Amino acid sequence: MSACQQGGENPAAADATVASWPASLNVMGDGFPNPGDTCRKIGETAATVNYLDDSATLAGCLSADAAAKLGGKIVGTVDGVTLVSVPNSATQAGDGDSKGDAKVAGTNYNATAQIKCAGYKGAAAGMCDAGVVRNGETGTYIDVILPGGGKRTILFNKDGSFLTFSTAEADGTAAMKVGSKRDGDTTIATLGAERYEIPDVFVQGD
After folding, report:
1. Which helix (H) or strand (E) holds 133?
2. Structure pTM?
């Protein structure tokens, strides 16, 4: 209900510019789609839950002009911030564009996205930022950014199948049970009570 109350039926009618990021939004990163850009990734809150989609990144822009340049679908506004749903394929090199795996500016990743995640220190289901490094010789690994800034690294075989998590004795992860299962075109990887849902297109790219 919060999203409906704060969002508008006509997001384009919102003020062209607002001064700062409102507390009602979970603003992540230092720029979208590239570091230093004026828009930001937006995480799950009561105001945005209806706008999240695991096949797209939810972005917020302080100006309507910046939102229009992202190339996604404007889905609403929250406290003057324009929300844009940007398909992951629109911001990720190597996801069916037949141009190979370039790097996301300012990172070592071939692509970035948000994936479904749950269970870290008892966290409820939500969306986590993730980056993928694809390597045809040794396989692929995905770094998932955890609440509070930690990281989980998930390893995949060269054929795109799940391999394991990177674990360590020092943080107790080596003692956690590792598992995986398939759900359609998605790998569900588990580490103890933690759960991560990774679409095949994110792992394999082109």
Report:
1. strand 126-135
2. 0.55
